[in-house]
Amino acid sequence: MASALDLAVANLVSPMVLFFVLGLVATLARSDLSIPEAIAKAMSLYLMMAIGFKGGASVAQPGLDAKLGLAILAGIILSAAIPLVAFRLLMLTSTLPRVDAAAVAAHYGSISIVTFLAATQALEISGIKFEGYMVAVAAAMETPAIIAALWLARTGESRMDSMTVREVMLNGSIVMLVGSFLIGIATGADGLKVIAAFIIDPFKGILCLFLLDMGIIAGRGLREGRKNLTLPIILFGLYMPLIGGALGALASWLVGLSLGSTALMITLAASASYIAVPAALRLALPEARPAIYLPLSLGVTFPFNLTLGIPLYVAVAAALH
Amino acid sequence: MASALDLAVANLVSPMVLFFVLGLVATLARSDLSIPEAIAKAMSLYLMMAIGFKGGASVAQPGLDAKLGLAILAGIILSAAIPLVAFRLLMLTSTLPRVDAAAVAAHYGSISIVTFLAATQALEISGIKFEGYMVAVAAAMETPAIIAALWLARTGESRMDSMTVREVMLNGSIVMLVGSFLIGIATGADGLKVIAAFIIDPFKGILCLFLLDMGIIAGRGLREGRKNLTLPIILFGLYMPLIGGALGALASWLVGLSLGSTALMITLAASASYIAVPAALRLALPEARPAIYLPLSLGVTFPFNLTLGIPLYVAVAAALH
Amino acid sequence: MASALDLAVANLVSPMVLFFVLGLVATLARSDLSIPEAIAKAMSLYLMMAIGFKGGASVAQPGLDAKLGLAILAGIILSAAIPLVAFRLLMLTSTLPRVDAAAVAAHYGSISIVTFLAATQALEISGIKFEGYMVAVAAAMETPAIIAALWLARTGESRMDSMTVREVMLNGSIVMLVGSFLIGIATGADGLKVIAAFIIDPFKGILCLFLLDMGIIAGRGLREGRKNLTLPIILFGLYMPLIGGALGALASWLVGLSLGSTALMITLAASASYIAVPAALRLALPEARPAIYLPLSLGVTFPFNLTLGIPLYVAVAAALH
Amino acid sequence: MKTHPKKRIDIMVEVPLMQRVINLLDQQGIGGYTVLPVLAGRGKDGAWHRDGVVGRAGALVMIFCILDETRVDEVLEPLFALVSRQIGIVTVSDVQVIRPDHF
Amino acid sequence: MKTHPKKRIDIMVEVPLMQRVINLLDQQGIGGYTVLPVLAGRGKDGAWHRDGVVGRAGALVMIFCILDETRVDEVLEPLFALVSRQIGIVTVSDVQVIRPDHF
Amino acid sequence: MKTHPKKRIDIMVEVPLMQRVINLLDQQGIGGYTVLPVLAGRGKDGAWHRDGVVGRAGALVMIFCILDETRVDEVLEPLFALVSRQIGIVTVSDVQVIRPDHF
Ligand SMILES: Nc1ncnc2c1ncn2[C@@H]1O[C@H](COP(=O)(O)O)[C@@H](O)[C@H]1O
Ligand SMILES: Nc1ncnc2c1ncn2[C@@H]1O[C@H](COP(=O)(O)O)[C@@H](O)[C@H]1O
Ligand SMILES: Nc1ncnc2c1ncn2[C@@H]1O[C@H](COP(=O)(O)O)[C@@H](O)[C@H]1O
Ligand code: NA
Ligand code: NA
Ligand code: NA
Question: Which of A78, A98, A147, F16 has the fewest CB atoms within 10 Å distance of its CB?
């Protein structure tokens, strides 16, 4: 496992992680360092565009892997199944009311694209390839968890009406990700050449800046969270990724994904949403407290995955191949 | 005309057009996908800077084409003449009140820089050169149409006072375009080398993102517009570019422009403003309803030019040479 | 001194300076050209990140110059000493009340990072190397001047409480600069390679856009300032950089800095703050009028340094070696 | 200059709810509304800040509408039903307008 | 704490008109004004949204100024003449201030 | 619908002062507050504009809080002590709320 250790270290001292730490530390030290909302939104759109387009362009390559369908199916099942596990664990270990437990569970079934991005970078460092369609898998995993969680919450007055469904399915991030993926497929390698200088060259640098912002938000989450996050909940934020990741590993093994795609599938399963799910739950499950699930996902699980989780998931994927 | 068809197809499946379509479709599907105002403004400034600087730097090359002056003159005449045609057609075919007809006419005399940019990309694809001074022509065509339209509106209380004139002439976009053009001339190829990695390499990618935003705005325009745009007006938004373009072709032929510059002159004549003119008319002709001219220019004419118009204009230019 | 003249000219017709002039002229002509706040903030963060990271990465190179400590010490002393000189001069030559004189003095002890950046570009043009640790010197010079000025102001009720100190030390810009510097040291040349396409390639272009914004702000400052800036104060804004620069030259000579670092040290000493100091003084010395020190620093001293000062400082540094 | 008394309803609501509030105002046939950006805030549900927030959740906007006193209740009742379970606040105040027909 | 009654005029106006309104307030010798950003809105002239808008047209800002009751009409009359043909609304309301001299 | 009278305090304050005002409101045990962005303005200390401003100085924000009449003075006095030397203004006005317990 030496190489795994190397990767772990390489990951920890990568500019991406260090800029995340910078944002986190600065915020905990109460610096006023912050990224304007408009810039954060633009960077997020940029990352969706880049990862989606690249994924699509590589799928467009001759010899499309037949596993695409299976992988997406596996992703959907994971997204819907993980909340059931998470919910049970929370009801057992914490004193969270049912509705909050269901809300938190939804986040862990869904995914975090930035964690996914960080994992692709780690794979690059180790020179491991992965299938472009994993982007589609990521998109497919965003929402099923929400349905599962609403069912778990079993509140008569849940507001998952047609309008909400449409808003969740068509939230800006997903549309940008899927749209860019399709455009990538349509224009292929030529299209990629056209805009490579925009979506490939500066990609890593923008990811650093975005992670700086994530660090700032995580720091705010931790500061706010202190009041609401009890020890059992914090622990859940640390071991749940491992459980989700294990299920992701199992699924990848069943589908027979490549080493790189396995690592990404584990990462997706282990990551927790902080964009699509919170927005959906404010509409569909307003009683659930954002003050619980936002700091937990942003302040505990995201940092864990970014620093320790990803190298571990890559190592596990390697061990499975 | 096979090559024209090829170009038409190549244009339709170019990332730029596809991202425009993505924004349009997402908005019509009521997705909340949107680009923050600050980012849209910044991208617009960036595009002005890039196109202006590149144009200036190429003009700075030895052997400045003597046609510069003639081309600008032709542009000014086109900008002032097209509204007269447009106005008559609207008065004949639609039930628009005089003041609205004049306002719409102004937009078609003036120009859309983004349409111009898209045309330069189409020329690049087909490997057709064009003169850098066409940027100056574009700038010169922005405002004459407004004067013509105010004269057409003949409202006693038009507010085209000195302050308004200054504001129209010095609106941020024009200043950025002309200023960058002059800086490009002053610093020439060396200056271009200095900032090429900023204004050339990522240019196409940023144009894609900007067109995504244009698609979103066009979609909003169409949704809003439905109420106010009658069939005659919508048709006008489709055939007027062809008439304007024809006049542009005639002018180019008289001036004896090169193939590429002819295509751009046709595009300029065919395009409709949505920045300089609306702002000016809100000051000088407040009775004219933005709810008519904005959706028409953004939701009908811009998409038409971007998708079908440009390849056609290039083909016509080719046929003339 | 021919080469100095050449540099002066080369500097004046560089895109950076010309875009600054564009912003200045446009604003004085009352154009509405403006850069959204969010973009200005993002560009400023970007510049801090780029200059900090590059500095750190170069420091990480084997053979760290032992002069780092001495240079930082010299910077701190300069930052604290220059305000004393500036204050005396203002009390002698102007009718400014004590508190305003102290506030202005603080700005000239502290530094302007953008002036520093422009100087590094001028050095590049002339192919002169400089030590990466000068970034750390710049950071170290930001705040001592504030302490000195508060002592000069001698107002019983100065509010330099612990909270203010923390806010000044941890203001976003400094944290970004120092943080990126440290990350640059940690990741070294490899880290730089990872994000070079983001922080090096487009750097000059973004600097141009940022200087355009500085020109706009300087123009606003001049328009606002007319009312409050008397001739003695304006003159101070022109000769004080020279005095500060002279002290910087002396310090560099004592420390034995290289040619490039000497030019940068002179520039830092000659430059006046417009970010860290104003924010600190609004907290610690609210009686001091921003309407005096902001236009003076932004509208008089910054343009002087950018256009004439920097080439002069490089020439002086060359003369000293 | 003659002015006419109207009411101003200020609605602080979570961004995800915004469209629903707007739809409600439209259904009630209100003459118009305006949406103001909000930077940050604190309430019983904790503090939040707009900077850096990527998603739509966790941030609020302010929607206000000027309307006739007689219409206030028509709006407040369905509005309250919509936002009572959400984060946010609603206030009503008095304003004077010049063109009463406009509202 | 002793407070003093003043009036607050809120002016929603199109961005292209903003400078003119400000000039008018300056000419009237008003103590000051504040401009607030506006995100979106709907009125009889249709709906608009700030996002993505590149030009200055089609978006509005809010300008408010606090002033003495006695000065309200001096401002309202020329203001009305300026904006009556434009998109936008004007409201007047009561506020209390601590430093009456300031306004 | 039954509404209850409360007071709204609007505080225009320089960005560098914002955190202190917020801390003060927290210390006073106020139910909550909201921060609104401000674009530009003019007062006796001159004009300013948010665009392009890089640093935190030279720009203002608006903080408002809804609270019970009985608490207004508890807030105004320390607030005035804090901002009296700064650039900015404070106003108080009447509002009605639906959920009095909230404030
Ligand atoms: N008393 C108050 N005054 C002003 N704004 C408030 C007040 N209470 C709550 N808010 C705003 O409404 C948001 C939600 O309030 P809450 O539901 O109490 O958390 C807060 O984040 C504030 O932005
Ligand atoms: N009743 C209203 N309440 C609040 N804002 C309004 C109202 N009517 C109009 N507005 C605002 O004023 C703008 C222009 O109004 P109008 O001229 O009626 O289209 C609208 O886009 C809204 O932002
Ligand atoms: N009479 C007023 N009405 C509205 N806003 C004002 C008024 N006076 C001052 N302001 C705002 O408060 C800021 C500071 O005011 P001052 O301290 O008088 O310069 C100004 O820049 C305006 O944004
Ligand atoms: Na997951
Ligand atoms: Na045209
Ligand atoms: Na200095």
Answer: A98
Looking from the CA of residue D89, the nearest atom of ligand 1 is: 12
State chain B's mean pLDDT as an integer.
92
| Gap between the Cα atoms of A3 and F92, Å rounded | 65
Buried b (16+ CB within 10 A) or exposed e, A132-170: bbbbbbbbbbbbbbbbbbbebbebeebbbeeebbebbbb
SS3 state of residue D6: strand
The whole-angstrom separation of Cα B132 and Cα B122 is 16
Say what the pLDDT of residue C61 is. Answer: 74
> What are the C-alpha distances in Å from B228 to residues A138, B221, B223, B225?
42, 11, 10, 5
> What average pLDDT is seen over chain F?
89
Pull the structure tokens for residue B199.
Answer: 């204004």
The answer, for D54 touching chain A at a CB cutoff of 8 Å, is yes
Tokens of A69: 């369908």
* Cα(F27)–Cα(C14) distance, integer angstroms: 53
Is the torsion defined by CA of C107, C108, C113, C118 positive or negative? positive
ipTM score assigned to the predicted complex: 0.95
How far from each other are the two terminal CA atoms of chain D, in whole angstroms?
Answer: 18
Binding-site residues, ligand 3, Cβ < 6 A? E 31-34, 64-67, 103; F 12, 41-45, 48, 60, 87-89
D62 lines ligand 2 (CB under 6 A): no
Residue F9, SS3? strand
Which residues are within 5 Å of ligand 6 (an ion), measured at CB? C 111, 271
Please list, in sequence order, all residues whose beta carbon lies within 8 angstroms of the beta carbon of residue F8, skipping any fewer than 6 positions away. D91, D93, F64, F65, F66, F92, F93, F94, F95
CA nearest A166: which of B105, B89, D19?
A: D19
CB contact under 8 A, E1 and F73: yes
Q: Which amino acid is at B59?
A: V
Closest-CA distance of chain D to residue E3, Å: 19
For residue C1, pLDDT beyond 60: no
Question: Does residue D50 sit at the A interface (CB-CB below 8 Å)?
Answer: yes
- pLDDT grade, residue E53 (50/70/90)? low
- Cβ E12 under 6 angstroms from ligand 2: yes
E56 reaches B (C-beta below 8 A): yes
Interchain CB distance below 8 Å, E17 and B282: yes
Residues less than 5 Å from ion ligand 5, measured at CB:
B 111, 271
pLDDT in tens, A257-309: 999 999 999 999 999 998 889 989 988 898 999 889 999 999 999 999 999 99
Q: Which residue in the set B37, B283, B287 is minimally distant from E51, CB to CB?
A: B37
Instruction: Quickly count: other Cβ atoms within 10 Å of residue B151's Cβ.
Output: 15
C219 closest CA partner among C46, C35, C3: C35
- Is it the case that residue B266 has pLDDT exceeding 60? yes
Q: Is the pLDDT of residue F55 over 70?
A: no
Q: Residue E40: CB within 6 Å of ligand 2?
A: no
- How many Å apart are CA A113 and CA A44, to the nearest integer? 9
Nearest beta carbon to residue B40 from set E52, E56, E58:
E52
Q: Mean pLDDT throughout C240-263? A: 97
Taking only the tens place, the pLDDT of each residue in A50-70 is 999 999 999 887 666 678 899
* Percentage, residues of chain E above pLDDT 90: 63
| Nearest protein Cα to ligand 2, atom 9 | E43
For ligand 1, is residue F11 a contact (CB within 6 Å)?
no
Give one DSSP letter per residue of B270-300, joined into a string: H---SSHHHHHHHHH-TTS-HHHHHHIIIII
Compute, in angstroms, the gap from residue A105 CA to the centroid of ligand 1.
27
Integer Cα distance of B28 and B34 in angstroms: 12
| Cα angle for residues A184, A186, A189 (degrees, 5° grid) | 60
Q: Is B18 on the interface with A (CB under 8 A)?
A: yes
